[in-house]
Amino acid sequence: MSELTYLEAGRLALAEEMRRDPLVWVVGEDLGRGGVFGQYRGLAAEFGPDRISDAPISEAAILGAAVGAAMMGTRPVVEMRFSDFALCAMDELVNQAAKARFMFGGQTRVPLVVREPIGMWRSSAAQHSQSLEAWYAHVPGLVVACPATPACNKGLLKAAIRCDDPVVYMEHKGLWPMEGEVPDDPDFTVPFGEARLVAEGGEATIVAWSAAVHVAADAAQTLAADGIWVDLIDLRTLWPWDESTVRRSVRKTGRLLVAHEAVTVAGFGAEIVATIAEAEAASLRAPPRRLGSPRAPVAYAPTAEAALHVTAEMIAGAVREMVQGAPR
Fold it and tell me: Is domain 196-323 classified as CATH 3.40.47.10?
């Protein structure tokens, strides 16, 4: 094990996969200087401009070229800089990459990774702060990954690069400096669709992903100090998502709270709540709940941005209400 930041773990995963497989290459803006956040620093010197390919400022051209290259047998990793900017290439991703395998009857695949940094971060304002993971989870043909820890960032990115289907890979900008233990094994991967149990208890189930996992972990500690012990589940991937683990936990606790940074309206929390309400109605001791951001653009002002965050206090308060309410 090595102590690495979230950013370093992703960079190591990419470097290891590029050394392992000469068909892996990267395309995007600002790669020659290491990427916007430094997540590609040093890779151009090792792999050269043919495999760390700087592109002009055209997300549609970048992703369109990568889709074609993937269909021809290479494994492109596309850097979109911010998830917001990837919206300029939605046709290439949603109408081409996601559907090619189906439309060609399995004769072609699109082994493509689209890295889209997400989340509110240091007053990045309305066009650089969105969490749009629910958009992609809605699209058949796409895998959606949202790592929350350095170890998961290494393992999920390696799994994404090895995957034969297009993967939307969403790293939270606020997690770049986070440190944690990361396996040194170059073949370490995190399987898609397998959640991580962060904390264990019998009073309620909290489901989160990406940076919200750490907010929920703070809430779980606060609740434990009050004698309320919860299962905290880090989904890690939204599609496929680990429905069986969540259902198993809810059968034990009888209560479900989903917390995410994305806008609550039509967020992926709604999918989880609806699934559990339909499949585990007999197990529920309280109505399942979700917490997310209000349906509002993210402001530049730090105070206004802060008003949109789901906090540990909000999560702990919601769990207390569920646990202390009248039983069914």
Answer: no
Question: Is pTM, for the whole model, over 0.90?
Answer: yes
The domain ranges of the chain are 2-182, 196-323
Given CATH 3.40.50.970, say whether it is the number of domain 2-182. yes
Residue for token pair 């803006």: 29
Q: How many helices (H) and strands (E) does the chain have?
A: 12, 14
Distance, CA of 33 to CA of 54 (rounded, Å): 9
Q: Is 234 helix (H, G, I), strand (E, B) or coil?
A: strand
Hey, what are 15's tokens? Answer: 């470097």
- Across the chain, which has 328 residues, the per-10-residue mean pLDDT values are 97 98 96 91 95 95 97 97 92 97 95 96 85 97 98 98 98 96 97 98 98 98 97 98 98 98 97 98 96 93 93 97 74
* CA 211/CA 261 separation, integer angstroms: 8
Give burial (CB, 10 Å; 0-12/13-18/19+) of 186. Answer: middle
Residue 28 and residue 78 in contact, taking contact as beta carbons nearer than 8 Å:
yes
CB 124 within 8 A of CB 81: no
> Is 128 marked active-site?
yes
DSSP state of 84: G
Give phi and psi for 184, each to the nearest 5: -80, -20
The pLDDT value given to residue 288: 97
Strand 52-54's sheet: what is its strand order? 52-54, 24-28, 75-79, 113-115, 167-169, 143-145, 237-239
Of 128, 172, 214, 260, which one is the catalytic site residue? 128
